[in-house]
Amino acid sequence: PGGSIAPTTRQRLPGAFRSHFGVMLALGKRYLLRHKLLVVLYVIAYLLGHSVLPAAVGLYAQQISNGIPVAALGASSEGGVNSGVAEVRRAPTQATDNSGLWRAYGLWLAATLGVAIMGLAFSYVASALGGRVSNAIRRDLFAAILLKPSLFFHEHEAQQLTMLVNQLSLQVQSALQDVLINPLLDLFGVVLLGYSLFQSLQAVQARGG
Question: pTM of the entire structure?
Answer without folding.
Answer: 0.71
